[in-house]
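Task card 7
Instruction: Convert sequence to structure tokens.
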Amino acid sequence: MVGLFLTFFLKLQVWLSFRRDNRLQDQFEAIISDSGIDVSSSKSATKYDWSAFVRYAETKNLFVVYQAPQAFNVFPKRAFATQELDAFRSLLDQRLGAASIAYRKTISPRTWAFLIVVAVAAIMLVMAIWNISRSSH
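Output:
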């Protein structure tokens, strides 16, 4: 249970925060260039140099560009034309690719905790089965 909690709690917390805060659901415009990313909405505008970002991740529907482990900008793929999508991916690889690849090769503490909990549960299950089979003989 602890492993499952550690694995999924943060994702659930982010999802709930997004759902509750209407400001996070406003439309925004992003201008992406070799110098960085300018993001603006009806309420704010921010210019990010590429040095502000530490890595990126790509999902089926999103690009997630991280400033820190829990601070990130999300860019929906549906907002890009096909050639823009490929150009953005290429720029991300050029600017953040090495850090992103290195991050993917590490195992997060949450994953380690989950694996340890699963291993302990498996050992306990084997011991219980062994004790039951031994007592029935």
